[in-house]
Amino acid sequence: xxxxxxxxxxxxEADIRTSVLDLLREHVGLTGSKKGCDHGQCGACTVLIxxxxxxxxxxxxxxxxxxxxxxxxGLGTPDDLHPLQAAFVAHDGYQCGYCTPGQICSAVGMLDxxxxxxxxxxxxxxxxSDLSDAEISERMSGxxxxxxxxxxxxxxxxxxxxxxxxGRDVAGxxx
Amino acid sequence: xxTFTYExxxxxxxxxxDTAATxxxxxxxxxxxxxxxxxxxxxxxxxxxxxxxxxxxxxxxDGGLRIGALxxxxxxxxxSRVIERYEVLSRALLAGxxxxxxNKATTGGNLLQRTRCYYFYDTSTPCNKRERGTGxxxxxxxxxxxxxxxxxxxxxxxxxxxxxxAMRALDATIVTLKHDGDKRRLSIHDFYRxxxxxxxxxxxxEPGELITHVELPAPPxxxxxxxxxxxxxxxxxxxxxxxxxxVAVEDGKIASAALAxxxxxxxxxxxxxxxxxxxxKVPSDDGFAAAADALLKGAQGFGSxxxxxxxxxxxxxxxxxxLTGE
Lengths: 175, 326
Ligand SMILES: Cc1cc2nc3c(=O)[nH]c(=O)nc-3n(C[C@H](O)[C@H](O)[C@H](O)COP(=O)(O)OP(=O)(O)OC[C@H]3O[C@@H](n4cnc5c(N)ncnc54)[C@H](O)[C@@H]3O)c2cc1C
Ligand code: SF4
Ligand code: FES
Ligand code: FES
Description:
The structure holds two protein chains of two kinds. By secondary structure, chain A is of the alpha+beta class. Chain A has helices spanning about 20-25, 70-75, 85-90, 100-115, 135-140, 150-160; strands at about 1-5, 10, 45-50, 50-55, 70. Chain A folds into two domains: about 1-75, Beta-grasp domain (Ubiquitin-like (UB roll), Roll); about 85-160, [2Fe-2S]-binding domain (DNA polymerase, domain 1, Orthogonal Bundle). In chain B, β2, α2 and β3 (about 45-50) form a beta-alpha-beta unit. Chain B has 13 helices and twelve strands. Helices cover about 30% and strands about 20% of the residues of chain B. In chain B, α5 (about 85-95) runs antiparallel to α9. The interface of A and B includes residues 16, 43, 110, 120 and 140 of A. The structure holds flavin-adenine dinucleotide (FAD), iron/sulfur cluster (SF4) and FE2/S2 (inorganic) cluster (FES) (2 copies). Chain B: It comes from Sphingomonas oligophenolica.
């Protein structure tokens, strides 16, 4: 099977049952994406496929040979962090760090969804949703953090979204 | 996971070629792969339909909407026509699963997702839905999330979808392609089956039959729409009780009402008696209570899910207040 991961081509001899997550971790050595539950319940395995965030544990590698897969390794490097990676460091958006690659990939996808105007469950007006803290939490609810670093995760994402923290309202920017 | 052969369908016609009971379509895979990992599902062949050209949402001449079976849940929820005309559907989709899952989950797959009954997932316990005739572990076991309406002595599972509940309130039609090339148009009201003695058979689909589209008729004029979901946590949890409501009030009276319920039955639930109790009446708490009585007349709890009966009553009444209030 042939894949495009983080802009590079890979070939792998993998069993037909291999998930995208197992492909990444076991076959191409990209262990940034984590396995938490293997059943779509935790978000630790979140990657971007053609720019959309998905649970890599619940999809088959064989179904994604013609797609662009982006993992945490493809977002930034230690010397050149992605803005969300930098913000997670700056805001202590983790404790053990196990959920973090999934959180960051999910946040990249989520910010793109919000930019496209996609609403969420907590949007009062489905046509005009902002990225209030409640919106960030709801939109990130598919990523569980066992260390409960949630407040700092929201802080990091809010910063990258370009919003002022709640309580430090800038020109009516916060609800 | 048991191994399988894999085939990528090149057309809808090619996809329906195989009618073997051990063949499954795979779309988003978010339910099927979950079940395959646990060997609840053990297909010998997967037909990958995910790249078929069935991912469009189109306007129909009569003001309705035609939704391809492969439209992802997230795209459907965010579609401007859905938001404008079918807010209940957008709301139901956004109340389901997570952002990541909705990006993968498809319209067809969502309709056909299986129950979340704990025993159905646990292959070490008897379950008539998983294996006919083995018994039901949920009756007399843990059944907090299971059904109080439409159950049988063989199975008390609920259908877990939020989207399908909204579609039932919206009178959706499910369009399919059969093995012999015939197309069928099935009302969502006739699509699902009660468990009876065969809880393993959940819909009227035939082997190899592919859902190609879901059609929504034009929404009723002037109706207010709402989806209310009660669950164990604020997000990312299945419904204990949910209500999809499409209600119009004219001249102070309820002119039309469509109410469908999740979390209560083996299928997205709708009961004409509920609506009959409302239509033509001036909105009032007494009238709403009569509608709840009609809904729950035959309701039966199984111990740990008894709470759903008063919860359904209160949720319905609260929704009706919102749908008819100032
Ligand atoms: C952790 C978690 C939480 C969830 N929470 C919710 C929730 O709160 N609310 C909710 O509604 N759902 C929830 N879901 C379920 C989710 O919505 C479903 O898994 C999803 O909608 C299934 O769609 P799919 O395309 O991935 O289906 P698949 O897994 O690909 O397929 C499911 C079934 O449908 C069949 N099928 C698929 N497409 C077709 C077609 N076009 N024609 C005929 N047969 C077809 C397949 O053969 C298979 O049997 C949750 C799932 C997970 C894992
Ligand atoms: S309720 Fe249905 S799905 Fe659950 S154990 Fe009983 S037969 Fe199986
Ligand atoms: S490992 Fe994929 S969601 Fe938990
Ligand atoms: S930082 Fe430990 S699980 Fe999130």
